Amino acid sequence: MSAIVSSSGRPTFSKASPLLRGKIALEEHSMTDHFDATKTLPDSENTSEHAFNDEAYMSDVVKRLADVESRVKDMDASGIDISCVSLTMPGIEGIFDAPTAVSMARKVNDQLHKTYRTGPHAHRFRVWGCVPMQDPEAAAAEAERCIKQLGCCGILINGHSNIGGPNTIQYLDEPQCEPFWAKIHELDVPVYLHPRLPAPDQQRAFRGYDFLLGSAYAFGRETAEHALRLMVSGLFDRYPNCKVILGHCGEGLPFTIHRVDHRLRHSQPGKSGPHKHPLAHYLNTNFWATCSGVQREGTLLDTIREMGEERVLFSVDYPYEDMQELSAWFDGLQLSENTRKRVGFLNARALLKLD
Amino acid sequence: MSAIVSSSGRPTFSKASPLLRGKIALEEHSMTDHFDATKTLPDSENTSEHAFNDEAYMSDVVKRLADVESRVKDMDASGIDISCVSLTMPGIEGIFDAPTAVSMARKVNDQLHKTYRTGPHAHRFRVWGCVPMQDPEAAAAEAERCIKQLGCCGILINGHSNIGGPNTIQYLDEPQCEPFWAKIHELDVPVYLHPRLPAPDQQRAFRGYDFLLGSAYAFGRETAEHALRLMVSGLFDRYPNCKVILGHCGEGLPFTIHRVDHRLRHSQPGKSGPHKHPLAHYLNTNFWATCSGVQREGTLLDTIREMGEERVLFSVDYPYEDMQELSAWFDGLQLSENTRKRVGFLNARALLKLD
Amino acid sequence: MSAIVSSSGRPTFSKASPLLRGKIALEEHSMTDHFDATKTLPDSENTSEHAFNDEAYMSDVVKRLADVESRVKDMDASGIDISCVSLTMPGIEGIFDAPTAVSMARKVNDQLHKTYRTGPHAHRFRVWGCVPMQDPEAAAAEAERCIKQLGCCGILINGHSNIGGPNTIQYLDEPQCEPFWAKIHELDVPVYLHPRLPAPDQQRAFRGYDFLLGSAYAFGRETAEHALRLMVSGLFDRYPNCKVILGHCGEGLPFTIHRVDHRLRHSQPGKSGPHKHPLAHYLNTNFWATCSGVQREGTLLDTIREMGEERVLFSVDYPYEDMQELSAWFDGLQLSENTRKRVGFLNARALLKLD
Amino acid sequence: MSAIVSSSGRPTFSKASPLLRGKIALEEHSMTDHFDATKTLPDSENTSEHAFNDEAYMSDVVKRLADVESRVKDMDASGIDISCVSLTMPGIEGIFDAPTAVSMARKVNDQLHKTYRTGPHAHRFRVWGCVPMQDPEAAAAEAERCIKQLGCCGILINGHSNIGGPNTIQYLDEPQCEPFWAKIHELDVPVYLHPRLPAPDQQRAFRGYDFLLGSAYAFGRETAEHALRLMVSGLFDRYPNCKVILGHCGEGLPFTIHRVDHRLRHSQPGKSGPHKHPLAHYLNTNFWATCSGVQREGTLLDTIREMGEERVLFSVDYPYEDMQELSAWFDGLQLSENTRKRVGFLNARALLKLD
């Protein structure tokens, strides 16, 4: 509490929202010298941010993606103790051929490690490894290297992977991905399922309003559908310890998943897929949600209501979002300080085994 | 309050949830002799309900779509005073050629009127008119006939319309639809934007798990995107009195729309479409949401939080949903009786001008 | 939305909370020349604010109680269109003898009318009449004069009335008050039941911690108990149109009243008082609640949940609270703009018949 | 999920609320042969339950207070694994002279231990020790014996203690109670602060409506005020590990405490007591709340919002409340299964060190 003077000249004693220190942010993006994920891939949606967004905003984003010092400065000003960084989308997943994906993933992981986990700021960062899902066996091997040799906190995947072209894609529940999940289960680390735009030929609903693609609705839709595929595929029945993190308050699923379950009651016996439980069970057992890029209290509270306080995590989505803006929002929410600390950092410390 | 005896033999005095009488349901479906909307259209998604759903469930649904007496009986048992009925999806919108759509819409409207608005139960029903959007001028004319001659409570549209084939579709914001909206604005009646599945070539995310299409996620996604198109198109700036009703707690938009607005802050100047306001403004000004097919309290409460108590309306989605099951859920929610009455019927009475 | 520059030097595009214009505040306090309600009564609790509170704060409060110009300036800066002012507590209710109360009430009403309802700012104010409940017949007559001759928006009563001394008090449900309620029912105006501290001999739980009395818990407890007395007395069964406004989010009743009803199930038949309905029924039918002096979102949302959006009203509790601080909090709450307008002014306009 | 047939003859597939097994209930009451806490004390409020409540209800309550077998049967039918039992109110606290209190507490603890912690049902119960606060040194010694020798899960205190008569009472923050708290701090066990009615001379607001005393409002008011005394006394600054459990969703404090803090901003410097933090800090740090006797979702959710998911605990208040009624309500709440398990038993297991 601090004394301030209101604009009407009256001294008031306003309870200024104090900064919550110690926060951990999980969906924080980076770029490497070897691989500019936003520019190099032909014919992919990876240029969407540039296509729709304001130039000044995007040039600031690009600059910040690679600048460690300004990132640390923003973290200091925002009460963020640790940022978990990843290669920005579409990342390795947007590469069309497998051998390139395999070698690029290795290079990127090495450079992210060098940039963020060595030097004076090493204690302020963790790194999400990237993997070449175009070759699932290689992805499993690279995941193992990331965790065991580079000390990554988990693996981040930008949605579906391109296999040969922009419209030929692979989802993570497809059978050939099994070796990857078996390894993840063994390594016992979380996978962050980061959004990616629907394949170009699946974007018709936005035609004429391409800017809507950049508005995040399309990202969220594609990611929610990807998560539903994981659930109904039986993946979490085969690997019950698999842990998946969704951004953006669970990409809408906390609001909609119960209706999905409600309708699946009526599906033909034996035809609603190999999953063994209602889908909300998996959301409550195998999923975590960050509030990256969301500054709406009702959305956050509904996510907490549907997933429980221990499965919701603070995040920013830097540098697409502003650390201080999102932190000020989060730190100022009128809820229990216990909940704020749990979502702000305690849950992340437990999930990422940071202590 | 009534005395009951618990299974342990102890007399208890349980507060049984009383039936809320006078409810009005807005998303209630019907079939006509002339037009079996679920069966006749080749190569369309209109068979989805049959494809994925349990046979016993679907045969019961089909029987109930056309049976007025069992409908009234269910309404009596559920405290539903008035059902607003419509031709079930995909309805007229699924017809590929315009002349057929024009003549069929007319026949269907006449028969719905005869079935529900004449005879002993006429006071228990209202009818949503259907229109042939494949010919927007004809749609405008039919809308006028529905409202002025048949006394319809508004127009219900099952999402996009097929123009010539299953994958050649028209959204309601496209320029050729202007005459329809001009007429709706003049008639001052609501349009119920009912879900429809994405066009077949836009369903790839569900491939391998076709039952997910019937689970309502795909319906909701397509309808939310349709509603977003209406908002960004500037339709509600041109016709500020246009009123659109969404089912299923606003098809996810109350949870996600603020993030869409949040990202649109960064779109290139002049490139985020002709709309004049943040999208949440339209959701709060031009939209209403029913809780059709939703039995999840958190979802309903978040909808009320984002749209206000006066824009949320009870509904069932009969016969796809069970009137008594959904009514028992709604009548038993622990919220203010004032809110229950407002959502249960007062808002509908005002919106549909039933008094 | 406006562009700002964050302290880290990055341009951001923050959604600044716009001022909600047109707000109406209902629990706003004043002082008159004839009657300094906070100082003159011997041996009463009316000095409590002075006893516990910071001197600088209290001297500012006293100055503002009587200063119309600074009040209007604060209203302008806060988006408050109309303040409904009343004589500050304990007001007429703290006078020990009836004749003094009768004549003082008349003088105060005349002066409040002259100060706030004549002159250049008349359109910015409404006045709550005060009445001498020490003589209920006179109170009824003065209420009629207030409404019919002075154009008051209703009557405000500061809890129990002293009858002869500090510990001999009268609650509004006592039989001798009947003429007052009969007149209120006839006049069809709301009564604002403003808090007052428990009588001195009922304050034992705070002994040793007298500052807790000024912390508002004791005010709220006494007022909630007064409201419960009104409910169980059958007053609202006899006068179903009587409308009572509580401040401070209903003084805790939205949170606790259902447990009271729950326990009353077990009271001896015929011994739970003359009331005909569960107490929550009256809270939903005869009561309104303002958020005066409350800056806690969970408290406001629970009040809305239990009373419905149409029975909750914005207020400040000026000058004990800061108009701009409370307005900034209210205007920045992340809820539907429809709800904000309804609570901010639409409900007040309807209840006070301001249109 | 199970198939049911609705009363309209249609088969439906309702999601029946499954019983949550493993629940732990913390505010469960008992009687002993040596000491009928509800009958023996002259001139005390301990007969209140009998005075206001239905005879059939009270005779059932009295029978159940002492019957272990029917208690276990109810627990089995309700999914309650463990009940933490205590001597029912006013208990030892209602005894006027200290020596009687000291010897009675010892006898009661021995008998509760024998009844509930030996024999075939021992694993289904835990016992709250009672202590003679009329002699705080003896209370400390008895607390130590309870925990170390009898294996009690903590100490339960029924509000203030009578010292010599019905209106001469002692609150737990008074200086002479220090030895008790020092011992509690050393033993590191929680204290359940159970409600008790205000002393007879503090019940004036209910005069004429004595049944309101039994309605729980008065119990809650007195207990909230007692908890506020503990907070402002600085007790938790001196003994930061002291843990206090409140029943009935925190006795209203989650709804009102922020307004208390808000007003204490204005108290005279150095005069707002020896406490070092805002009161909400203690509510979030030293307090837990059970939902005993509360069957209102909004009240529970506001408690979770203000205290965090980990400080809210299931309870019944048996036999004053019905185990199956309250369990069915709790098990059917539409919130995350994770939250339900945490509130249902995980929090209790951690707080009471049951694993």
CATH class of chain A: Alpha Beta
Distance between the termini of chain A: 32 Å
Total number of beta strands of chain A: 12
Q: Within the largest sheet of chain A, what's the order of strands?
A: 3-4-5-6-9-10-11-12
Roughly what fraction of the amino acids of chain A lie in strands? 5-15%
The outline of chain A comes out as globular
Helix proportion of chain A:
40-55%
The major pleated sheet of chain A works out as: 8 strands, parallel
Element string of chain A (H = helix, E = strand): EEEHHHEHEHEEEHEHHEHHEHEHH
Would you tell me which CATH topology of chain A applies? TIM Barrel
| CATH H-level superfamily of chain A | Metal-dependent hydrolases
| Radius of gyration based on Cα positions of chain A | 20 Å
Number of helices of chain A: 13
* Total domain modules of chain A: 1
Under the CATH scheme, the architecture of chain A is Alpha-Beta Barrel
Largest interface: A-B, 63 and 63 residues
Quaternary state of the chains: homotetramer
GO molecular function, one term (chains A, B, C, D): carboxy-lyase activity
Protein name (chains A, B, C, D): Amidohydrolase-related domain-containing protein
Keywords (chains A, B, C, D): Decarboxylase, Lyase
InterPro entries (chains A, B, C, D): ACMSD, Amidohydro-rel, Metal_Hydrolase
